[in-house]
From TrEMBL:
Protein's organism: uncultured Blastococcus sp
Stored Pfam families: GerE, Response_reg
Protein name: Two-component transcriptional response regulator, LuxR family
PROSITE patterns assigned to the protein according to its UniProt record, in alphabetical order: HTH_LUXR_2, RESPONSE_REGULATORY
All residue ranges annotated as the HTH luxR-type domain in the record: 150-215
PANTHER family (UniProt xref): TRANSCRIPTIONAL REGULATORY PROTEIN NARL-RELATED (PTHR43214:SF24), TWO-COMPONENT RESPONSE REGULATOR (PTHR43214)
Keywords carried by this UniProt record: DNA-binding, Phosphoprotein, Transcription, Transcription regulation
Domain of life of the organism encoding this protein: Bacteria
Amino acid sequence: MTIRVLLVDDEELVRFGLRTVLEAVGGFEVVGEAGDGAAGVRAAGELRPDVVLMDIRMPVLDGLAATEQILALPEPPQVAVLTTFHLDEYVYAALAAGAAGFLLKDTPPREIAAAVRAVADGTATLSPKVTATLIESYVERRAAPRRAEALQRVATLSDREREVLQLLGSGESNAELARRLFVSEATVKTYVSRLLAKLGLANRTQAAILAHEAGLPEG
C-alpha cells in the first residue's frame, strides 16, 4: 500500500531532497509540502497523509505547536520530527506530545524510506539507538516528579504486559520481541496494541518513555 507523506520544513532544499528520495524508492506518495507549521497543520487536515515529516524550527508556527495541533485532529497521521541535532530540546517536547520519533536530516537516503515506513505502520521508533539516548536524557531531566506517577501506571499491568513494556523501553523491534517472548510477530502486535490502549499511550515511543520513567530495567 502506498504511504502518503506530507513534508513540513521551511527549507525548500530539504523538502526537495526528501521528496526525491521517497519517490525514487517507490511505495510513497508525497501528497503535499508546507513551509511553516501553520501551513502544515492546514495541509494535514486537508490532505489526510499517513505520515507527516515535521521540522521543528519554523516561522509562523513552530514544529512543536504544529505537531500538537496535528495530533489533536480526528484520526491523526503519525508525525516524525526532523532535526539536525541529536539532543534538540524541542525534540523532547515533541516526543512527549505524541510524535512517533525523529529523523536526523543527515540520515543516509536508503535509511529514510525504511524509517518512514516504520513510522507509518507503528512497528518501530526512528533511529533506535539515538532515540534511546534521547529518551534516557529526557527522563533524567524530568524523572523525579514523574517517577511516582509512572510507577502507579505500571502497577496496573500484568506481569506479561510489564515484560512487553520493558522490552519496548529498550527499543526492541517486533521481531526481537517475538523472539524474546517466544510468540509470533502477530501476537506481539496484539500485545503492544493492548498495552498502548490500557495505558492511554499514542505510540511505542511514549511507551519507551514511560518504561524509563518507571525505572524498568532493560531486558
